[in-house]
Write a structure and sequence with these properties.
It is a single chain. The protein has 221 residues and is mainly α. The protein has a single domain, classed as Thiamin diphosphate (ThDP)-binding fold, Pyr/PP domains (Rossmann fold, 3-Layer(aba) Sandwich). Helices cover 46% and strands 7% of the residues. Helix 6 packs parallel to helix 7 (152-162). The protein starts with 10 loop residues before the first helix and ends in a 10-residue tail after the last helix.
Length: 221
């Protein structure tokens, strides 16, 4: 049986897949990441948690023209696999191999050498302003988690974005995860949002629709 992931050599290949095939691709990505991390070490849970998000981002946006900034750089394994580095993924975190974080010198699809954390919004706003000054029109997308959102630099970035004419997108990956328990006003606000009826009903609808899609594999010729 042919794996969907075997047909993906660039993000252009991903865009050709239908919803069923993307569901299979998510399973393939998780299996590959599990295998790589079991051999090389690395960040497992954070990468498994953003598989569908990564597929969605590369379905909608066009890298490297569009800029995707990962606030927590160690969530980038699926991104690397989908942006032409699949054949090198087993060199991850090895000498002269792929980095466990975004690296501008490694691929033009990595637009910022992200470490950890709370920098993505400020970086994205800087990129958006530079884009506007140069007269370009590509998209700038910052991916930030609920834990990173509480960092001072993230809050300063949000404050600046809110008063800026520069256009950028901020995606909140609200996974209720951090190095330690999330505390404070933002954590309480997000907890309230999660318990709202409309939020819970939309989540159930998405899960129901997703689970109703049969998980199939393409038969090899």
């Amino acid at each position: 049986m042919e794996s969907i992931i075997d047909t993906i050599n660039a993000t252009e290949d991903l865009k050709k897949l239908n919803v069923v095939e993307k569901k299979v691709l998510a399973k393939d990505l998780r299996e590959l990441i599990l295998d790589v991390v079991s051999k090389n070490g690395g960040h497992l849970a954070s990468n498994l948690g953003v598989v569908e998000l990564t597929i969605a981002l590369h379905t909608v946006f066009d890298v490297p023209e569009d800029k995707i900034i990962w606030d927590v750089g160690h969530q980038i394994y699926a991104h690397k696999i989908l942006t032409g580095r699949k054949e090198k993924i087993y060199t991850l975190r090895n000498l002269d191999g792929l980095s466990g974080f975004p690296k501008v010198c490694e691929s033009e699809c990595d637009c910022f050498d992200t470490g950890h954390s709370s920098t993505s919004i400020s970086v994205g706003l800087g990129m958006a302003r530079a884009r506007d000054l140069l007269g370009n029109n590509h998209k700038v997308v910052a991916i930030i988690g609920d834990g990173s959102l509480t960092g001072g630099m993230a809050l300063e970035g949000l404050n600046d974005v809110g008063s800026s004419n520069a256009s950028m997108i901020v995606v909140l990956n609200d996974n209720e995860m951090s190095i330690s328990k999330n505390v404070g006003g933002i954590a309480k606000l997000l907890a309230k949002i999660r318990t709202k009826r409309v939020y819970k009903e939309s989540n159930r609808t998405i899960k129901r629709v997703t689970n109703s899609i049969p998980l199939i594999r393409k038969a090899s010729c």
